[in-house]
Amino acid sequence: MTSDDERAVREAVVAWDLAMVGNDASAIGTFMAEDWVIVGTDGSVSDRARFLALVASGDLQHDVMETHDMRVRVYGETAVTVARGVSGGHYRGHPFLLDERVSGVFVQQEGAWRCVLTHLSLLARGES
Known about the structure:
The chain is an alpha+beta fold. 27% of the residues lie in helices and 53% in strands. It has 3 helices and 6 strands; from the N terminus they run ααββαββββ. Strand 4 (78-91) and strand 5 form a beta hairpin.
């Protein structure tokens, strides 16, 4: 059985994927807490402002953002997600298509679930 909070987190992730493919920095930002950080597949750490600036400038564009096999655990006003993701598009003119393990930490802020941490790890092609 799925709790209302779990369902809301899942819905937020689906909507965030759509915003990413829309390449709309403002819409993407609504799913992130102000202090959001991302750990990239190479171990780099970046913040919300830098990520959204890359999208706004067109340096980072997505035409694919899919979340599969997502597990959600809710702990009060915090939720943890683990999923398999497919991310594709262009970064500074170079195409990319990645299969990733995506972990996220979400918190309830102002009545919405917002992500505070995204962690990405590369998956070998075909790995689930």
